[in-house]
Specification:
- The termini are far apart.
- This protein is mostly helical.
- Helices cover 89% and strands 0% of the residues.
- It has helices at residues 2-87, 98-115, 117-120.
Length: 122
């Protein structure tokens, strides 16, 4: 009988230990799940912010492209006007002495290069 009581007590202790560990692991799983949910919420919020920034940046790029095309069209139009005016200009058909034309060419070249940031950084 004494042996049976000891086995009974050991069984109760083992069962109690199993129950305590089960509760502990269940609580740990619950905490991990809550942490994961919180991280998912934070990541979702960050993704929404990034999507809004992407939309804003894409709109800026689109606006810049439209402005670029408008400026290109204005430039072409102005160049056509200048060409039309020069076509009827008697001075435009006269030869310019080489030192003067070379100087004007170099000046125009330096102005183009200073206005083109992609070439000035290279």
């Amino acid at each position: 009988m004494d042996k049976l009581k000891k086995i009974y007590k050991l069984s109760l202790i083992a069962l109690l230990i199993i129950v305590i560990f089960s509760i502990y692991f269940a609580y740990q799983c619950f905490e991990d799940e809550q942490t994961a949910k919180q991280q998912m919420t934070e990541l979702s919020s960050q993704m929404q912010q990034l999507q809004q920034k992407i939309i804003k940046n894409n709109q800026i790029i689109t606006d810049n492209e439209l402005s670029k095309h408008e400026l290109e069209n204005q430039s072409i139009s102005r160049q056509e006007q200048i060409n039309e005016q020069l076509k009827d200009n008697d001075c435009a058909n006269r030869l310019i002495p080489m030192p003067i034309s070379g100087s004007m060419y170099n000046r125009a070249k330096s102005l183009r290069e200073s206005a083109n940031p992609s070439k000035s950084t290279q």
